[in-house]
């Protein structure tokens, strides 16, 4: 088995669909940000953070997001998006992604999102709650 599956990620399986292909015959670059969004929400569900964040006044907001394309992906394929956490601060953290292609047996894309906790009532950044912090630390790998 590939070492990708030995890493302590939250793993989200995504099927590549025909409509994600571009004129050059590979998955369009914007699709990876949708894959990462799917993986981010799945991470929140699998770790129990989604229920902690059910209070609408405090929400994680993307500050920025990034993708590095290593190998082109074509239909048909299935990607496994491994998600993990780095660089936890008082009011923010980084969620990292590695997309592994089943057909190529290789990592095809890597990325991250800087996530800031935001108080929707005050319009200001807010500290990560202790119970959320405890969960994030369980999935923290190294430092960025």
**Which CATH architecture would you pick?**
Roll
CATH topology: Thiol Ester Dehydrase, Chain A
Structural class label: alpha+beta
* Major sheet attributes: 6 strands, antiparallel
Average per-residue pLDDT, rounded, comes to: 92
Please give the count of helices.
3
Order of secondary-structure elements: EHHEEEEEH
How many strand segments?
6
Stretches with pLDDT under 50, minimum 5 residues? none
> What general form does the structure show?
globular
Question: What is the name of the CATH superfamily?
Answer: Hotdog Thioesterase
| Rg result | 16 Å
Number of self-contained structural domains = 1
Tell me the name of the CATH class. Alpha Beta
Q: Which percent bin holds the helix content?
A: 10-25%
Through-space gap between termini: 27 Å
Structural write-up:
- The chain has 144 residues and is an alpha+beta fold.
- It has one domain: Hotdog Thioesterase (Thiol Ester Dehydrase, Chain A, Roll).
- The protein contains three helices and six strands, in the order E-H-H-E-E-E-E-E-H.
- Strands 1, 2, 3, 4, 5 and 6 form a six-stranded antiparallel beta sheet that branches.
- The longest helix has 19 residues, at 29-47.
- The two termini are 27 Å apart.
Write a brief caption for the model.
The chain is α+β, with helices and mostly antiparallel strands and 144 residues long. It has helices spanning 29-47, 49-52, 130-138; strands at residues 10-15, 58-69, 78-86, 92-101, 106-119, 124-125.
């Amino acid at each position: 088995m590939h070492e990708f599956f030995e890493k302590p990620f939250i793993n989200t399986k995504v099927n590549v669909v025909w409509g994600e292909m571009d004129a050059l015959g590979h998955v369009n670059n914007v699709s990876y940000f949708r894959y990462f969004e799917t993986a981010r929400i799945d991470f929140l569900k699998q770790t129990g953070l989604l229920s902690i964040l059910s209070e609408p006044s405090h929400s994680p907001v993307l500050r920025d997001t990034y993708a590095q394309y290593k190998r082109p992906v074509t239909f048909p394929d299935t990607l496994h998006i491994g998600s993990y956490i780095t660089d936890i601060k008082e009011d923010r953290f980084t969620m990292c992604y590695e997309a592994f292609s089943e057909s190529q047996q290789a990592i095809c894309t890597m990325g991250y999102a800087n996530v800031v906790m935001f108080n929707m009532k005050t319009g200001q950044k807010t500290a990560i709650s202790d119970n959320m912090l405890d969960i994030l630390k369980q999935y923290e790998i190294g430092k960025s």
